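Lab notebook, bench 4. The sequencing result for the construct came back, and we need a structural model before the next group meeting so we can plan mutations. Quick request posted to the team channel:

Model the 3D structure of this chain.
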Amino acid sequence: MKFLRGLFAICLIPVIAGCSSSGQVIDGWSNCVIGGAAAGAAAGAVVDGGAPGAIVGAGVGAFAGAILCGDHDSDGDGVPDSADRCPDTPKGVAVDANGCPVDSDGDGVADYQDKCPNTPAGTTVDANGCTLDSDGDGVPNYRDDCPGTPRGTAVDSNGCAVKVAIMYIHFAFDSAQIMLDKGDTGPSLAKAIQLLSERPGDRVRIVGHTDNVGSDSYNQTLSERRAAAVRQYLIDNGGINASRMESEGRGESQPSVSNQTEEGRAQNRRVELELLR
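Done. Here's the predicted structure in token form:
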């Protein structure tokens, strides 16, 4: 027994040195076992003077090395440190075979941090794992057919503004003066008044559009003036409360059809009523 205690103490010195110098846990553990066995055999042969002591020493040294340098699981995730690519995983978090938190929808945000699980593959997400909605209309970017919708606009399932009415109103040339007796101008305005009267709880944005004849800046200003003129007409002639309506011009930026023909340009010269939330 005295021999074994002495031998065990002798074996500890190279074993501990081998473990502390290893960069990889699994390599250190192997080195400790092998080194412990070798050191124990050598010490056993010296102390006992023969093969029996060497054999006993090798066994004691290997056992001491295995105990001292066993593979640990520091973060308690069930994956030993030697195979754990994500050390320090929070307690209780489900991990994969590599010890990394599970990311079921593959969006780059681990399940335990993902507030929007089951995001479609390839979708760009924020830090919470939720799809981006740049214009804040409630429809995520990946299925928003109308990005950049103004804030507060009611939209459909595709993220496009809900239009209460589209009016093809005639204005005097280079002017915001409404020509009631031309085309569908009068009936269009009468329909808008009727719709707004039947839906007293609705708020709308009156949006003016132009064709592409003229400069961008000119058409932008003209569309703003014409949208404001329609708003004022609905107030003065329809009794619609001003607080229910706002006006905006978008110039030639949003044509509904091609501007290559006169018919197309006529369709693009329009005023739309967009529903507000």
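The CA atoms of residues 206 and 247 lie 5 Å apart.
Will bring this to the meeting.
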